[in-house]
Amino acid sequence: MMFNNNHEVRIQVRGVRKVYDTVAGGYVALDQVDFDAATGEFVAIVGRSGSGKSTLLNMISGIDRPTSGSVVVNGESIGDLTESKLARWRCRNLGLVFQFQQLLPTLTVAENVMLPMDFAKRGRGRDNRVRALELLDLVDVSDQSDKLPASLSGGQQQRAAIARALANDPPVIVADEPTGNLDSHTADETLETLRRLAGDGKTVVMVTHEHDVSRWVDRVVTMSDGRLFDAASLGALDPVNG
After folding, report:
1. Which of 5, 33, 91, 103 is most solvent-facing, going by the fewest CB within 10 Å?
2. How far apart are alpha carbons 195 and 52 in whole angstroms?
3. What is the pLDDT of residues 129-150, one digit of tens each?
């Protein structure tokens, strides 16, 4: 892979523990997790359902907060931010890609891509549309720009969702099961798009159930029972942290 280990760390998770209160008592979703990702790196976090991988992604994106430990993304300790500051930080620094694309059905594809620019109060309407079309061209769906999402294939919708994630040129892309609903060919196209973004200097962290992603990513780490392991599968794990 093209990744250079000398690149600066863009995501740093240290000693993160997340405990949820349940009727049965405290449920430990993350157990003293340490994790780094650098500029231009594409990292896949794999593991079974309930292993903690999506919870870790929520920590990195600021969707949830750790019970203890620290999360620093692009130089900002996001656990120290108020909800309003966190929302502004996320708009500038983070692109989110989901398994279910969450495109608004009553807006055209281009209008969906323009939404984050509007939230960030970035540019004017005409300028934002030009940027939206450029991003849709980047992911090869510019010919679908004025259609409603329902008229696109699943793969086209996912590529449009990636374009939307890039709207404000964030340094970090987090993707939660981005290929979960796609056939193998379309999944490969989505992974190739994410690979190109890392090649352009984005930090891409992807959660997936799939283990056969090594040809696309720079590094695969495995989660099991809330702990992170430096291994590409759930067999013969060597723990990264305590």
Report:
1. 5
2. 24
3. 999 999 999 888 899 999 999 9
Structural contact between residues 47 and 235, judged by C-beta atoms closer than 8 angstroms? no
Mean pLDDT of 99-126: 82
Top-confidence range, 36-45, 121-130, 178-187: 36-45
State the pTM of this model. 0.84
Q: For the chain, report the end-to-end CA distance as a whole number of angstroms.
A: 29
State residue 147 phi and psi, 5-degree precision. Answer: -95, 160
Question: How far is it, in rounded angstroms, from Cα 89 to Cα 132?
Answer: 21
CA distance 89 to 173: 14
Instruction: Return the residue matching tokens 């987090």.
Output: 174
Residue with tokens 């890039």: 166
Q: How far apart are CA 177 and CA 170, in angstroms?
A: 19
DSSP line for 54-103: HHHHHHHHTSS--SEEEEEETTEEGGGS-HHHHHHHHHHHEEEEESS---
